[in-house]
């Protein structure tokens, strides 16, 4: 489940803010990404995309599994973001440099705030356990992006219910069901189970842009059939999202206010400029890395080294104007 980009040659991604233009229905296919260091591990990445760098402040979305895999992700750094770990199946031990040592299980949310810098590790429990999870990043606004690191696990998540529909609110709120997860931008994230024959209008905020990722089954979203393997972007300007599943489905509903900052994303760092990313990489490779990132107990100094920075800059990724 490791909340990490383990690419040994990651692209530099300069992401421009999305400007929504009202309700739309656009499908963005997932990219199959092999993660080095995790045996036989492939993830399906749907954020960021060239045409869709953000959904609100959600700036990174991987799904992996369901599969049996022994996941062992050594300590690695993050800056400028929050990691959101949402297991569908399987158990993961999380340890970080602010002293956390917890197991996250289905129905629980791990929310780690990197701020200026944090390090963490994640190991699956058991021998080749069955795992399925979504892993997301939330870009931090100015202030929190350079603030202190922290960690929160939320186990008592609220549920919004309708006939044949149950939505667990991970982040933000749905129609008065409010998550205790502490985020720094107006966001929503919900795990929605639609039973066979279920149909519902999920209330949403019209000022948010929204997207849907199907975890299993198939569903009509705003009248459009949608299944696993891609992200359906819905734009903004909606008061509700219509869901209908003849055979049943499970999906993530994500949304938020359009994010107002340009970002550079490279490896596990989020910053405002190339120089910020270079400084973070240099700090992680320094013998004094603990000054910025702290230390993760229990690994005897083992860690994932940072890849080499690219020697070219990419132009900002911006959503095409309509």
Automatic annotation (TrEMBL):
- Cofactor(s) demanded: Fe cation
Keywords, ordered alphabetically: Iron, Metal-binding
Q: Which GO terms describe its molecular function?
A: metal ion binding
Q: How is the cofactor bound?
A: Binds 1 Fe cation per subunit.
- Residue stretches making up the Pirin N-terminal domain: 42-138
- What Pfam families does the annotation carry? Pirin, Pirin_C
Q: Where does the record place the Pirin C-terminal domain?
A: 190-286
User: Where do Basic and acidic residues bias regions lie?
Assistant: 292-302
In terms of superkingdom, the source organism counts as: Bacteria
Q: Which CDD domains match?
A: cupin_pirin_C (cd02247), cupin_pirin_N (cd02909)
In terms of InterPro entries, this protein maps to:
Pirin, Pirin_C_dom, Pirin_N_dom, RmlC-like_jellyroll, RmlC_Cupin_sf
Give the binding site residues for Fe cation: 76, 78, 120, 122
Q: Annotated region Disordered: where?
A: 292-322
Tagged with keyword Metal-binding: yes
**Transmembrane intervals:** none
Q: Which family does it belong to?
A: Belongs to the pirin family.
Under PANTHER family, the record lists: PIRIN (PTHR13903:SF8), PIRIN-RELATED (PTHR13903)
Q: What is this protein called?
A: Pirin
Origin organism of this chain? Cellulomonas chitinilytica
């Amino acid at each position: 489940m490791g909340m990490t980009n383990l690419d040994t040659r990651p692209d530099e991604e300069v992401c421009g803010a999305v400007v929504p233009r009202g309700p739309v229905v656009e499908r963005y296919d997932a990219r199959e990404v092999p993660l080095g260091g995790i045996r036989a591990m492939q993830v399906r990445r749907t954020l960021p995309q060239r045409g869709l760098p953000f959904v609100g402040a959600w700036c990174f979305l991987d799904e992996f599994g369901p599969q049996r895999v022994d996941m062992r992700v050594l300590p690695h750094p993050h800056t400028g973001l929050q990691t959101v770990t949402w297991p569908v199946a399987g158990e993961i031990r999380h340890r970080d440099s602010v002293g956390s040592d917890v197991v996250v299980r289905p129905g629980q949310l791990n929310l780690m705030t990197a701020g200026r810098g944090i390090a963490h590790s994640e190991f699956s429990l058991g021998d080749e356990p069955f795992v399925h999870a979504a892993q997301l990043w939330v870009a931090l606004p100015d202030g929190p992006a350079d603030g202190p690191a922290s960690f929160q696990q939320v186990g008592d998540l609220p549920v919004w219910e309708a006939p044949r529909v149950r939505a667990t609110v991970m982040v933000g709120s749905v129609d008065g069901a409010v998550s205790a997860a502490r985020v720094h931008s107006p966001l929503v994230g919900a795990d929605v189970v639609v039973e066979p024959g279920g149909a519902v209008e999920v209330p949403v905020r019209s000022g948010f842009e929204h997207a849907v990722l199907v975890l299993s089954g198939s569903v009509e979203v705003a009248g459009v059939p949608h299944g696993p393997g891609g992200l359906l972007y819905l734009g903004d300007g909606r008061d509700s999202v219509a869901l209908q599943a003849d055979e049943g489905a499970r999906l993530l509903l994500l949304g938020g206010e359009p994010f107002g900052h340009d970002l550079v994303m490279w490896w596990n760092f989020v910053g405002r400029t190339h120089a910020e990313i270079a400084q973070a990489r240099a700090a992680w490779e320094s013998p004094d890395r603990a000054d910025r990132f702290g230390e993760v107990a229990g690994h005897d100094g083992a860690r994932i080294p940072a890849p080499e920075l690219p020697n070219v800059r990419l132009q900002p990724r911006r959503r095409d104007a309509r």
